[in-house]
Write a structure and sequence with these properties.
Elements lengths: L1 H14 L5 E5 L2 E6 L1 E5 L13 H24 L8 H19 L6 H13 L8 H9 L6 H24 L8
């Protein structure tokens, strides 16, 4: 590349043409002469990322793991809430939130948004489908329609709420459920 730059500059001096001056600064090649400096044809400006690629890649894995933990909490949290009113309230709120986030197109799940943002920073093609669809596609059944996965998730969440209703109806005299 340096040889091409030197050749272009030498040719401009020999012919007396007024050509833009081309110079190399670090990994960038600039053209200047008519106004402010511009990048040379064929060279892209590479902005410095706020988050380095490896860090974004690692953080993507952390967000995926947090997403899996959230799904496990939503699916199995009812098993640890018996006699614990604080956990029970948190789990019921989590289930209601999960139903809303699955059925309403906006707002998107914050973990999915963070995952897509980090994947883009890490150079991974961001997925544009819900987390459950991707997980079930990768692990269990490939090419499941999105409506089936979302519908199944909502049915499971409603069934878990049914467990809480049943517990409430059958609560003991001391009020434990």
């Amino acid at each position: 590349m340096n040889g091409l730059l030197a050749e272009s500059q030498a040719e401009a001096r020999a012919t007396g043409e007024r050509r833009p001056r081309i110079e190399r600064r670090g990994r960038y090649i600039f053209k200047s002469g008519l106004g402010r400096a511009r990048y040379a044809r064929g060279c892209e400006r590479r902005e410095r990322s706020i988050c380095p690629i490896f860090t974004a890649y690692v953080l993507t894995g952390v967000v995926l793991f947090a997403h899996l933990l959230w799904c496990a909490w939503a699916l199995l949290g009812w098993t640890v809430t018996l006699g614990r009113p604080g956990l029970r309230a948190l789990h019921i709120a989590s289930i209601v939130y999960a139903i809303v986030i699955e059925l309403v197109p906006w707002p998107p799940c914050p973990l999915t948004v963070a995952e897509m943002w980090l994947e883009a920073r890490a150079g991974i093609a961001p997925a544009h489908e819900p987390f459950l669809v991707r997980v079930l596609d990768a692990i269990l059944y490939p090419d499941l329609p999105e409506w089936l996965v979302v519908g199944g998730a909502v049915v499971v969440c409603v069934a878990i709420l049914g467990v809480y209703v049943r517990r409430y109806v059958r609560r003991t005299a001391q009020g434990e459920w």
